[in-house]
Amino acid sequence: MSDAAGLVPLLDADGYNYQENRYAEDHQKFPRRIIYGSENSHQFSAWQAVLTNRFISGQFLWTGIDYLGEANAWPNRASGAGLLDLCGFKKPLAWFRQSLWSDQPMVYLCAANGGRNGGNNFARRGFGGAESWNWPSNATMNVLCYANCPEVALTLNDKTIGTKKISEAVSGVLRWQIPFEPGTLQAVGRADGREVCSYVLKTAGAASRIELLPDATQLRADGQDVCHVEFRIVDANGVRVPNADAEVKFEMTGPAKIIGLGN
Q: How far apart are CA 49 and CA 21, in angstroms?
């Protein structure tokens, strides 16, 4: 419709929302048109449309961070479409994008239960895992690995599961299916035979304490300076308990005040 109405020639650059299927045809018709993705999905195929077509300038993902509204159904209060959650923490999707875009060696692990619930999401989207190694004792796990190094070695409790080359990735993701065993799941990224990065998931025990992680230890007494304090529930060994659901209350003493909370 934009072409028919003569709108497109009025613009210096033309944004396409979820229209990757039109890129090749429109470039052939209008070889001088500057095309970019102005709103695009997280699907690997949408990124491939940028990567494999030199005439596509780039893409904008919907969306970078979760946002209030478009919550779909009570009790949701926000859209969950972001790479980051409402507090700014990286979701598995953000790590996936890092593996596609970053030049720094990285590897990341998440997992999905291969049963009726987790398996469907895993098969449909390819990156629907959780950053957790707390699962039912009889579960068959789909382990998802996002990496940008030549090969990745996976171990469970120091036992070798296998090594895969990044060229084996399907839609940008390396996968293993293994029976769940509590303990330590580790991925080691290698380049030229040497370790360049690693990532660990550990099974958490019972909730033991609240851990507070401030991003600053000194503040200016100007009434404006801010400290962000990450709080998380950990077990006796300091491992974050991924399914902790205790209510947490906060108090502040001294010359400061709490200006916001989120989880």
A: 9
Q: Please write the tens of the pLDDT for every residue from 15-27.
A: 999 999 999 999 9
3-class secondary structure for the chain?
A: CCCCCCCHHHCCCEEEECCHHHHHHHHHHCCCCCEEEEEECCCHHHHHHHHCCCCEEEEEECCCECEECCCCCCCCCEECCCCECCCCCECHHHHHHHHHHCCCCCEEEEEEECCHHHHHHHHHHCCCCECCCCCCCCCEEEEEEEECCCEEEEEECCEEEEEEEHHHCECCEEEEEEECCCCEEEEEEEECCEEEEEEEEECCCCCCEEEEEECCCCCCCCCCCCCCEEEEEECCCCCECCCCCCCCCCCCCCCCCCCCCCC
Spatial separation of the C-alpha atoms in residues 206 and 239, rounded to whole Å: 10
Lay out the sheet containing 107-113: strands in order across.
107-113, 140-147, 174-179
Q: What whole-number distance in Å separates Cα of residue 178 and Cα of residue 141?
A: 5
Q: For the segment 201-242, what is each residue's pLDDT rounded down to a tens digit?
A: 999 999 999 999 999 999 999 989 999 999 999 999 999 999
